[in-house]
Amino acid sequence: MNLLGITVVLGLLAGVWAQINVVRPQCDSPEAEEAAQVARDYLNTQHTHGYKYALNRIEDIKIYTKPDGDMYVLEIDLLETDCHVLDPTPLANCTVRPKILTAVEGDCDVVLKRVSGALTVTAFKCKTEESTEDFCVGCYTLLPLNDTTALEFVQASLATFNNMTVNGTFTVMEVGRMSSQVVSGGPIYFAEYIVVEANCIDDACVPLNDTMAARGICTARGFSTDHTVDCKMFLTVMPVVDVNSTATLAMSPAVHAHTGSLSPMHGLRHHKLTTLYNPHLSGLLSESAESAEVVPAGPTVTDTVVTPAPAANPDPLTDTGSASDSSGSAEVPVVLVKRDVPAPAIVDTVTQKDPIAFVPVLCPGRVRFF
After folding, report:
1. What domain range is 129 assigned to?
2. Weakest mean pLDDT among 164-173, 209-218, 241-250, 301-310
3. Which of 11, 63, 212, 324 has a CA 20 to 30 Å removed from the CA of 192?
4. DSSP bridge pairs for 31
5. DSSP string, 242-293
6. Residues 107 and 170 in one domain
7. pTM of this structure
8. Which among 96, 91, 120 has a CA at the least distance from the CA of 243?
9. Interatomic CA distance for residues 246 and 119, integer angstroms
10. How far is the CA of 157 from the CAs of 1, 71, 215, 310, in angstroms?
11. Whether residues 9 and 130 fall in one domain
């Protein structure tokens, strides 16, 4: 019976400790903005295919204050830009793709830790999907990255570019996007792809696996037999992190030119963000199902850490109460003590600087694009 009493007391203390150490700032507060920018920059450095993503909205933020460093749990919405991950253009100068061109959205849950004033990402999970809200008849339709006819169009436009190039020959390094539009003369194609300088003998081309090899992005439009193509070479071969970013500068990925079908992405119509990074099996990621990814369970994480929401704290205590009821009526006074537990549930909101009346509008934050 003494052991049961100690268990109940420890459960109460753990529940109160978890509540008073959860802070929920406004989603548009400077603290939330800082964490979101660090998360966005880190996700972009981990994204080695496709395009950079811009921050669209901060959905939610929780801060767990701990002696060894505060933990930030963030939910953010991202939108694909027109800058490839190899493009050195600063993210602030990149354009978010409009819905009419089939925008690609990323929903990410990110866990960060602040140590000595610096924020670092410790875990994340992301879901990437196309926006089909404003789909219109006659608009460009995104095609799978392994669409045979569209890839033939890419090869035809690349040949046109190489015929116009005096110094050097290029091969396809990666197909970024392919789409088609139905017109009177049949489907017209639009493609974006990354090229890399290559050493070609007859029709066989081997990409130069050199950091100094020229790379660029080409955009082509039309038919295989009649099209326009425009290629822009990148000034540098390494992605450039924004000046105010805390993300670590990522090295340029090794050349992995696609041959044959040109794209290993079977059936996918866009390059997905890295879906999961959770080396320490952080249970904090499992609190949100927004990213819809399968997250490994963290059985070693206790409820005092994993369950930040105050409403969830009474549940394990209720189970303990059931055990005490089954052991005898001597623990009835303990039940009266536990009925006081829901009161600290307000602590999660009281720790905010704003009045409780404004709690419902703290999150989500503002929409930056659409």
Report:
1. 1-134+271-370
2. 301-310
3. 212
4. none
5. PTT--SPPPPPPPP----TTS---SS-SSPPPP-EE-TT--GGGGG--TT--
6. no
7. 0.71
8. 91
9. 8
10. 80, 49, 16, 58
11. yes
